[in-house]
Automatic annotation (TrEMBL):
Residue ranges of every copy of the N-acetyltransferase domain listed in the record: 5-92
Species of origin: Edaphosphingomonas haloaromaticamans
Alphabetical list of PROSITE patterns matching this protein: GNAT_YJDJ
Coiled coil: none
Protein name: N-acetyltransferase domain-containing protein
Taxonomic lineage of the native organism: Bacteria, Pseudomonadati, Pseudomonadota, Alphaproteobacteria, Sphingomonadales
Amino acid sequence: MASVIDNPAQHRFELALDGDNVAAAYYRIDEEGRVVLTHTEVPFEYSGQGIGTKLATGVFDAIRASGRKAVLKCSFMSRFYAGHPEYSDIVDG
């Protein structure tokens, strides 16, 4: 399976799936340069396969690598973070 990539033109992190299917985590950059995660989408047919967790892990790792902080406005990303406190160094609200 592919790795998570940042697609700034679409304001989202993407995880390529089969064919044209993509799991995506949408974001905006706030006035402080933080990555505000607003919405996560995994195609229905991929539910329950760990795709969201793989996407979230890739997103958090990418944000950490960029030196930015994350703001969690997405309920899925908030739930992921609740179970992964090792990302507390990059979560800022």
